[in-house]
Amino acid sequence: MLTRLLGLNSEELRQRLQEEGEPAYRGDQIAEWIYRHQAHTFAEMTNLGQTLRAQLENKYQVGRSRVINVQHGQDGTAKLLLEMCDGALVETVGLPYPEHFTCCLSTQVGCPIGCVFCATGLSGYTRNLEPGEIVDQALTVQEEMRSSNSPGNNDIRRLDHVTFMGMGEPLLNYEATIKALHLLNEELGMGMRNITVSTVGLVTGIRKLAQEKLQVTLAVSLHAPNDNLRRKLIPRMGQWSVAEIIKACRDYIRDTGRRVTFEYCLLGGVNDGTAEAHQLAVLLRGLKCHVNLIPYNPVPGLAFKAPSSRQIQVFREILSSAGIQVTQRFQRGQGIDAACGQLRQRAMKKAPVEQY
Ligand code: SF4
Predict the structure, then answer these.
(1) Alpha-carbon distances of 244 from 43, 216, 220, 298, rounded to whole Å
(2) Does ligand 1 lie within 6 Å of residue 115's CB atom?
(3) What kind of fold does domain 3-61 have according to CATH?
(4) Which of 27, 33, 34 is nearest to 12 (CA)?
(5) What is the mean pLDDT of the chain?
(6) Structural domain boundaries in the chain
(7) What is the pLDDT of residues 71-105, one digit of tens each?
(8) Of 22, 91, 263, 276, which is the active-site residue?
(9) CA atoms within 13 A on the CB side of 243
(10) Which has the closest alpha carbon to 291: 209, 224, 346, 204?
(11) What is the CATH number of domain 66-350?
């Protein structure tokens, strides 16, 4: 297979072009085409000579994915199913808000964590994504949202926020995640503070990330305030207790000065009771944090249901009265396969991809 250039930074592209006997500035030109102009082919790079373009085509590819399905929600949300160069299917989502434009990126093909309520977990795990494949999702979402006529998309600005919250556990694909966020920052010009890295609570990964001293936001998907419940919901993460996760977050806040966000998916009748809310309030007392409540989006084939509006409100009030900053993530993408992994799962059922 031809070598992918998407995923190399400007410095690496300069070196690569020098190895090809070209002046270093050609690497900068290619970086500009790939990351700023979102070129898919060398033919688009009109300030490179034809001979150089032909030479590059023999050995390299830009390495962009192919969009194989797009679903648009009434609110402007776009969910894309992308096919990577080896046929792997990956989901990504574009979320336009009045004040910013966010993209939710996947870091793995499927997910090995297997949270029992998640559609991605249902379809298993294939491989890690490479840095270029992660950044490709941001470039593709931006292109799609700009070119689409879906409601609310007429005035799409440049993508300015990214969350690593799609398929997969970013901290299990640590090196690629770190490289991708440097590419987003240095090549796409996105502020580190506008990047959120989500984890289901890998203590070793949280501690490693803290040492990078980056200004990214850490979001920890807790989903349960005690070990018993957490082990039922996320059975493969039983090696770290809730207390150990909170301790790692406390140290992260100390080392980076950044507030941590706790994601809590409210599953009707499972983890949304007043007892769990009080436990969570005690657990997070005094921590520089913010809780994001996510009402569950039911997934066909899974027995979990959405929480009632009343229970969401009660849960929220208990946290607020304990002095914890809490927000509720409003469901976006109504009318599309909004839960992470559903679009891919549907496509795999229809037309299984050979390499799986
Ligand atoms: S919720 Fe996240 S960590 Fe859990 S299985 Fe789904 S993608 Fe993986």
Answers:
(1) 52, 21, 13, 30
(2) yes
(3) DNA polymerase; domain 1 (1.10.150)
(4) 27
(5) 91
(6) 3-61, 66-350
(7) 988 888 999 999 999 999 999 999 988 888 899 99
(8) 91
(9) 1
(10) 224
(11) 3.20.20.70
